[in-house]
């Protein structure tokens, strides 16, 4: 059995344990209890292969059971305490079930849209992300970079030391989304907000006297990419 298939099977078993019965999990996922039982019991399909949790069923299970997107594809003994957070996985470089996203620091210049990267010096060079999650999101792995959050401006949604994955292919400004920016030559992670026809960079921290909104004027505020995922050990 492939690693990905085994992970989904173990997570299905965890859901059954959490909600007491396979029938309750099936009800929540709006699927047939017998089908879940067949998966759990290793029943064979017409092709002779063991039945598994497909992408459509994985999504139904996550939604119906109140799990964050991608939960079914990540190995974990417990549900992440922080909603939207994912377990950090460092897979074997040859594991075909994972993409390996480089952990980097950005080198930026004021007024220039382009950027360079250098390897992060703290705790490793890559972050392993399940291929099923990346492919389901329609992301291209070569356009993804992992950045370490610094400072407290985005608390309580992002804490210092958290890792975020940034899709550098997505630079279209969207109200309410979190992006990495080149702000006059400085790399910042902020929430983009449109007010009275103007774009602003907002911090999530409630102390707006210390973290005042910044105007996002053309030339000094350049989108590097949209934050699509976070990894945290904050409990």
Question: What does the model show?
Answer:
By secondary structure, the protein is an alpha+beta fold. It is built from 5 helices and 12 strands. Strands 1, 6, 7, 8, 9, 10, 11 and 12 form an 8-stranded mixed β-sheet that branches. The chain has a two-stranded antiparallel sheet with strand order 2-5. Helix 1 packs across helix 2 and helix 2 crosses helix 4. It is elongated and about 60 Å long. The two termini are 33 Å apart. About 6% of the residues have low confidence.
Most strands sheet:
8 strands, mixed
Structural class of the helices, strands and pairings?
Answer: alpha+beta
Report the end-to-end length measured between terminal Cα atoms: 33 Å
Helix content: 10-25%
Q: What is the β-strand count? A: 12
- The gyration radius over C-alpha positions equals 20 Å
Counting H and I runs of at least 4 residues, what is the number of helices?
Answer: 5
Which consecutive residue ranges, at least 5 long each, have pLDDT under 50?
77-91
Give the SSE layout.
Elements: H1 3-19, H2 22-29, H3 33-40, H4 55-64, E1 85-86, E2 98-102, E3 104-107, E4 116-119, E5 126-130, H5 131-136, E6 144-148, E7 163-167, E8 178-183, E9 186-195, E10 198-202, E11 214-215, E12 221-231
Parallel strand pairs: 1-12
Antiparallel strand pairs: 2-5, 3-4, 6-7, 7-12, 8-9, 8-12, 9-10, 10-11
């Amino acid at each position: 059995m492939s690693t990905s298939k085994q992970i989904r099977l173990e997570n299905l078993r965890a859901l059954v344990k959490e909600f007491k019965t396979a029938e309750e999990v099936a009800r929540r996922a709006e699927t047939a209890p017998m089908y879940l039982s067949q998966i759990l019991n290793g029943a064979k399909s017409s092709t002779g292969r063991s039945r598994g949790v497909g992408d459509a069923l994985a999504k139904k299970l996550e939604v119906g059971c109140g799990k964050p997107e991608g939960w079914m594809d990540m190995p974990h003994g417990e549900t992440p305490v922080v909603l939207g957070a994912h377990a950090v996985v460092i897979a074997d470089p040859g594991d075909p079930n994972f993409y390996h996203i480089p952990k980097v620091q950005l080198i930026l210049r004021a007024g220039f849209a382009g950027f360079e990267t250098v390897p992060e010096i703290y705790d490793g060079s890559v972050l392993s992300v399940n291929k099923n999650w990346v492919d389901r999101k329609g992301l291209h792995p070569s356009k993804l970079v992992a950045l370490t959050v610094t400072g407290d401006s985005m608390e309580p949604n992002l804490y210092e030391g958290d890792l975020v994955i940034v899709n550098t292919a997505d630079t279209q400004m969207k109200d309410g989304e979190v992006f990495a920016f080149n702000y006059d030559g400085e790399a910042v992670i902020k929430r983009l907000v449109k007010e009275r026809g103007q774009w602003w960079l907002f911090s999530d921290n409630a102390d707006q006297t210390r973290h005042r909104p910044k105007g996002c004027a053309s030339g000094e505020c350049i989108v590097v990419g949209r934050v699509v995922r976070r990894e945290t050990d904050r409990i």
